[in-house]
Design goal:
Length: 80
């Protein structure tokens, strides 16, 4: 039986690391509790999950409600 925490912070951290590797960024230290909250999701222009903006700059709920983005997640990432 799957555990509910498998899609929580640990999965989000793993996804953030995979995203960083895809972008050619350093993985070491890219995700930290002191990082900034970022919004990732899919759009019509790019269906693969990607950076949509910083959580304090974009309204993730509004993007979803308007149908502009889906599969939205928030992740803590270190600003570069």
């Amino acid at each position: 039986m799957p555990r509910g925490d498998e899609e929580g912070p640990v999965a989000e951290e793993a996804q953030a690391r995979m995203d960083a590797l895809e972008l050619g960024e350093s993985v070491e230290g890219d995700v930290s509790p002191e990082g900034r909250s970022a919004v990732f999701g899919s759009t019509a222009a790019d269906e693969k999950p990607h950076f949509l903006g910083w959580a304090d700059d974009v309204d993730a709920d509004e993007l979803f409600e308007r149908g502009e983005a889906w599969g939205i997640s928030r992740r803590r990432v270190r600003k570069t």
